[in-house]
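REVIEWER CHECKLIST
Item 1: Sequence provided? yes
Item 2: Single chain? yes
Item 3: Sequence as submitted:
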Amino acid sequence: MEFRDHFPVWDKLTAAERQRLSDASFSRSAEKGTVLHDGSDCTGLLLIRSGRIRGYILSPEGREITIYRLFERDICMLSASCIMNSLQFDITIETEADTELWVIPPDAFRDVMQQSAPLANYMNEIMGTRLSEAMWRIEQILWKSMDKRIAAFLLEESVIEESTALHITHETIANHLGTHREVVTRLMRYFQSDGLVRLSRGTVELLDKKKLRALCDE
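Item 4: Structure as written out by the authors:
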């Protein structure tokens, strides 16, 4: 599919605005684990054609915690935070799977957004969505115990992968949730002893999703 088929509000842009974005944007392929943006530069907006990316922040000790995850047809704007003068937010953006995307350079996007009210409004909607996701993550950290957060993450991952057999390490789970691998390992062993999961090297198999949901809802 073409760039215009993936770009939101394309039909609401003028011919000149469409041309500006089309001429400036370029496609990029990135293998799983590629860092697309590390906060040190203004990468530009990322429009996902296929694959999956995540945005995460780092603690002073180097621990990761996922703030949001994006999928096909999603647009990542925090990789171009330089176009929003009031936004000071260091975030790392990394691919979770082999990913195809378009990159819209910040200068071109800024030019069009300053002219197009529909595009500016859409960007405000995205910012509101990302803020809501970040607040939800904060609420989870503050008010949910780690066993409930792990259960919720496993269920979410099962939906994303469309499988109950998750090829994921305890280290990866810890990075998503902002905790230590040892904490995840200890709780996963409890889950296994309770019959909720089966553990093997690099794989977590969900055996009782109903009980995992009940744990999340307690």
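Item 5: Key structural point noted by reviewer: Helices lie at 3-6, 15-24, 106-115, 117-143, 146-161, 170-177, 181-193, 209-217.
Item 6: Recommendation: ____
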